[in-house]
Amino acid sequence: MTTQPSIPLLTQNNGLSIPQIGLGIYGPDDSGSADAVATAIEVGYRGIDTAALYQNESGVGEGIRRAGIAREKLYVTTKLDGDRHGYDAAQRAFDTSLSKLGLDYVDLYLIHWPLPGVDMYVETWKAFEKILADGRTRSIGVSNFQPAHLERLFDETTVKPVLNQIELHPGLPNMAVREFNTAHGILTEAWSPLGRGRVFGNPTLEKIATKHGKSIAQVVIRWHVEQDNVVIPKSVTRARLVENLDVYDFALDAEDLAGIASLENGVRTGDDPDLYNG
Ligand code: NAD
Predict the structure, then answer these.
(1) What does the alpha-carbon distance between residue 239 and residue 256 come to, in Å, rounded to a whole number?
(2) Labelling 15: which of 75, 90, 107, 207 has CA 20 to 30 A away?
């Protein structure tokens, strides 16, 4: 079984860390998620990334129970749905997520999108600070926040996010947000790390993969790991789950990195956080 390092979370000063490679579970329904989560834990995953929006928190909880692992060995992330922004609404939504997961606490609770047109993320973050203070989540963070959104949190609230989960893959290295995160001690977590499947069949990646005797998925996940990103590739297939963790026995060289850098095209697989309002 492959085990992977955990990365320290810095901004909330409580000595916690997050597994570097986790399972992203956007897509499967409750039943499929329960199977995938149980399998992932069995083959060595300790981090799981879900969201209220994915409508599979009950299945994720079921998979965790089925795996029979001690709760404290796992790192469970969920996210607030867009239509639940606001101080009271966010706290109620958190209760619902916790109850669906069947857990006493989550490790990380994220604002899924800033929704700048709705303009309630500051008030929502204050609810997150309360949930953190109550000990019902170990850490709080954000997703899809641009530097301007983070600056507002810094100016108008008390606790800095531990992590910012953003779209990040070879086509969209998202360097400006990543550098801003790092400058503020905020960890970057890559969503759609395989470009939602778009990396497959790419001849440049194929060449690098062949050179190292690895798969394209492993080359791209290794690229994330070498940038110290947290990375949450999605798969429900046992062999792929195993493959996606098995990236700690090779390293990319300068030529590989230049090849991967040449794949940047700025094309998003998802929404633009400055424009998306739910
Ligand atoms: P991804 O980049 O992880 O790609 C998933 C695709 O790659 C799937 O089709 C899967 O079958 C395939 N795949 C995975 N491993 C493979 C392998 N070894 N060989 C061949 N194919 C393989 O895409 P994603 O699911 O969009 O992103 C991952 C996770 O990121 C999601 O599940 C979710 O948890 C998170 N996410 C977050 C947001 C957000 O707004 N915060 C948005 C999208 C996704």
Answers:
(1) 25
(2) 90
Q: At what angle do helices 203-212 and 254-261 cross, to 10 degrees?
A: 160
Q: What is the signed CA dihedral for 139, 140, 143, 149, rounded to 10 degrees?
A: -140
The pLDDT tens digits for 100-130 are 999 999 999 999 999 999 999 999 999 999 9
| pLDDT computed for residue 271 by the predictor | 98
Q: How far apart, in whole angstroms, are the C-alpha atoms of residue 3 and residue 180?
A: 29
Predicted TM-score (pTM) of the model is 0.98
Cα of 32 vs centre of ligand 1, distance in Å, is: 15
Ligand 1 nearest atom to the CA of residue 218, by list position: 18
- The residues annotated as belonging to the active site are 54
Domain residue ranges in the chain: 6-261
* Fold designation for 6-261: TIM Barrel (3.20.20)
Tell me which residue has its CA closest to atom 14 in ligand 1. Answer: 235
Q: How far is the CA of 126 from the centre of ligand 1 (A)?
A: 30
Nearest Cα residue to atom 24 of ligand 1: 192
pLDDT for 14:
82
